[in-house]
Fold these 4 entries.
Entry 1:
Amino acid sequence: MGNEAFYPIGTPGQPWGAQERAAWLAKQVKHRSYAQDVLSAIDRLRDAFDVSEYGALTYGAEHYPLIVVRSRGWRDDLPVVLVTGGVHGYETSGVHGALQFLQQHAGEYAGRANVMVVPCVSPWAYERIHRWNPDALDPNRNFRKDSPAGESAALVNLLEPLRDVVLMHIDLHETTDSDESEFRPALAARDGKPFEPGEVPDGFYLVDDADQPQPAFQQAVVEAVAKVTHIADADARGEIIGSPLLLPGVIKFPVKQWSLCAGITNARYATTTEVYPDSPRATPQQCNDAQVAAVRAAIDYALAHRGG
């Protein structure tokens, strides 16, 4: 089935040009506030953590400071554990799960690890509940040094000095019904390709690094999250979003080859969470709690096995 049945912008079979991108951008509407939802929550953490700006984005009249939160009393002899959220702005529990972890649990690792959290990588997209940035680019295909996406370039620059130091990196995402109704059709239209419908998995799953798989690590995270919300089953083909199941609730991608966020550093333990907020079996708070459970389990496993 062609793009014309799925997306109103562009000509089927032809990639978007400047006119189509402008038409797409004109349709984007601000639904929520990065300053109120994210920056205000981070401000309340300043007494307990080191908070700093690692870059900024200016889109038209809008200016977005990019914020990283670090353990107070950072020590070079401690391992670094990294949490990122909001790479895709519409994936709400990634942002609020990261903030909830900071508020409730990050302090528990004082003296054991340097905790580094970037709660919202893509603030413009957070406000518009969207996957792309204003240039119709997906930040999670552009985490590389020469990135055309400002969100991605800023995070790559932040993490470059820690590239070989980070022990664990967990990147918090969601898979939503809008992936099939909006974002994948838009991607097909943007690139002038036919849209091939897929299946949205009902439940939580993880994405492992195909080039450096850590099955025991992934399993520990899945088992922790299973206490909070349900784990996605494979489809009739034994797959989740077109990828074979490695373990219950775990698939793998070549994260560095695809320039995904989880591949920015050379962390021994890396994973990408995928929460399903549209499930009738999960509440928004459960989604946030699932992200927090994943973060805690990932850090705990990495610290327990850092020498192994």
Note: The helical segments are 18-26, 34-43, 92-104, 123-128, 150-159, 178-191, 215-225, 284-304.
Entry 2:
Amino acid sequence: MTATIRDAALPFTGGALTALLSPATRLLGLGEPTHGVEAFPELRNELFRHLVAHEGYRSIAVESDCLAALTVDAYVGDGTGTLDEALDRGFSHDFGAHPANRELLRWMRAWNARRPASERLRFYGCDGPLEITGAASPRAALTSLHDYLAAHLDPECDRARLDRLLGPDERWTRPAAMMDPGQSVGRSPEASELRLVADDLSALLAWQAPRLTAATSADAFWHAELHARTATGLLRYHAGMAHTAPTRIDTLLSVRDAMMADNLDAVVRREARRGPTLAFAHNRHLQRDESRMEFGGGSVRWWSAGALVSARLGEQYAFVASTFGSRGADVPHPDTLEGVLSSLPEARAVIDPGRLAAGLDRKLTPRVPADHTYFALDPTTTDQTEAIVFVKDVSEGDA
């Protein structure tokens, strides 16, 4: 290891990381290389506490169902419900079971309990109501949007028609539809008509924004926009599930990350006067370069939420990737990025990508991990990150 590479690293602290960011940053994306390893959400918690205390951040958005997250935000905001209820009902992907998420909510609630409403921390989900096994029914999003509008306006579609087109939720949530387009109702006549209805309701919401905001509140209108985005995104995702084209999975991943980008963009706009936002999701969802992965014997490609939001926000978006060295018997080869970083003395380090690239004396090869759920960093794209957070060793118990 050259002295230059050693100079590219500092022990991980919130201050060491933020020193590498532009002061214009409004959305900081912190990626994790895999789910289920507690070292990364624990690191996220530590960073968020620093950002709140020293950098003026007042919100966090995580890779979880954006509608379910309203339950979490109500708990951390004013103590609605209990911690266990927020963890059980407020997260998708079973993330509520992770100890670090329990600790995050407990800390946010304690912070908010001592402060006025205007200074309280907010919790957001940036993902759609999606799981690996499929997508939710659009019912909750569509009916919430319709009911908000109907309380003040006269939308063309009445509730009876909406219920008829939606039908039973079981039609929308069949797990088999994820891999079998024939099991999906996403391109049925009813679903196609619902897409037009959702578009009409969303347009009506936008056209009447001044009236509706005055009649309700800015927060109520923002939540109506959230339901509008989610309804149209879900219907688009269901249509993608029913598609038979070879690029079907590429489309689904693109739709999902577009929903995430729209949610993050909306969060940044809502939080503009309060402070920046920390986003926490998989590296593949937050990176600037094109995302790729192997699926079903082929390669799929899509633009991540980070790439999309970066195109909109420019220097106001910052991306910090994280990765790790050893995980039990899975030890990185010395010629990989993770192998080089494993030679650093720090257990957790913040890496300056520019200094790292200047200190390398050989071309690095991509790591091939033993665990297919872990995505190693591409050593050719480190210039598209503001920083890299490296954890030298994660225990098998974190898996």
Note: Residues 274 and 393 are 37 Å apart (CA to CA).
Entry 3:
Amino acid sequence: MAANTKAYAKVVENGVQAVEAVKELRNTGYSYEDVYVLAHSTDRTDKIAETADAKEIGRKEEGMFDSLANLFRSRGDELRAKIQSMGFTEAEADFYEKELDQGKILVIANKLT
């Protein structure tokens, strides 16, 4: 992966901050297709993604194998796999997953195409 395509991530405290972070990313040139949100619970992720008009990390980003494997993983393992699928290292995914465990939200910008 080229250095200029490295994913950007920001940890925020709540949904309001997530919406603001998504707006900031859009103002700097990221499109809807490039901005993702992730929270510890899937319901919270759904609500924040809808409110912020951002995407969720899904089969397209993860690939079929990881998407299927997530059906059998703990939520923590699933979150780490989703974060890694966005271009982050295992250590970065561990760090971000711990933040999500504490109720925070992860906003990611990544031009995957």
Note: The longest strand covers residues 8-12.
Entry 4:
Amino acid sequence: MPLSDLTLDECHAYRSTATEPPGFDEFWSRARSSGGPADFVEVSTSLKTLRVYDVRFPGHAEQPVRGWFVTPAGADGPLPCVVEFPGYNGGRGLPEDCLLYASAGYAHLFIDVRGQGSGWRSGDTEDHEPEGTGPQHPGFMTRGILDPEKHFYRRVMTDAVRAVHAARAHPLVDPTRVAVAGVSQGGGLALAVAGLVPDLAAVSADVPFLCDMRRGAERAATGPYLEIGGYLKVHRDRVETVFATLGHFDGVHFARRATAPALFSAALMDTTCPPSTVFGAYHNYAGPKRIEVYPFNGHEGGETVQHAERLRFFADLLHP
């Protein structure tokens, strides 16, 4: 697969021109509330070295969000915790999908994204009474696209913030040692949470989606950014309205509010999240940061190589 975006030198020089919408902080102020208590119910699995809990916690509008909470068997805490978000149209899957962090000594909360979980890994969380019910292109990107109050990611990002509150409330978790992580959509959600929750211990955003979204819609050749272009191909008069809405959910703007140490990764042959969009958020990130770059990879990014790098990064900051 050839390069389809900028070279590495050009990515390092690139700066996003994304415009922050007026009232961004006010728009997100309501998402920071903690919501009600989470429910953790231990479940029996075949995993002998790990304990697994089925989790429900109140997300946006107090609607229930599901997840798995996994800890090392016999751990009595306090443990550092990694809160993880799935990629686009994936869900929490099975407990056997959630082995990495607990095996390394962390508590691990892996949550659903509401209404997703039928593309590559199953999910169990409904999107109750979705607010954005106007005409849309198939997928999630244009659901509620004409009004940021009704857009799909307003609910999802609020859920992600509430997931951190849920993890911190568990008696095994040290609330001062909580990190957020994800790949693709999950990386974009991790950046959103980093911009909305001021006291995280670490952030990991691998090949993050939802960053520099207008550029993504103009440059991506595969993946969910194409939904935006598909919508605007029909609704030719709504270009500025669409990108004004999406500006409320853009990782470029969350990044400048984030202060926790962050590890990014980008892949130069990524046609789903073009590397320049990742660097657009990376250059805006206000806290300590570094980025791993995979010159000959697409949207799979570093895969296990990056998993190992992330574990080393977390170990330095969270001390499992």
Note: The beta strands are 39-43, 50-58, 64-72, 79-85, 107-111, 173-183, 202-206, 262-267, 289-294.
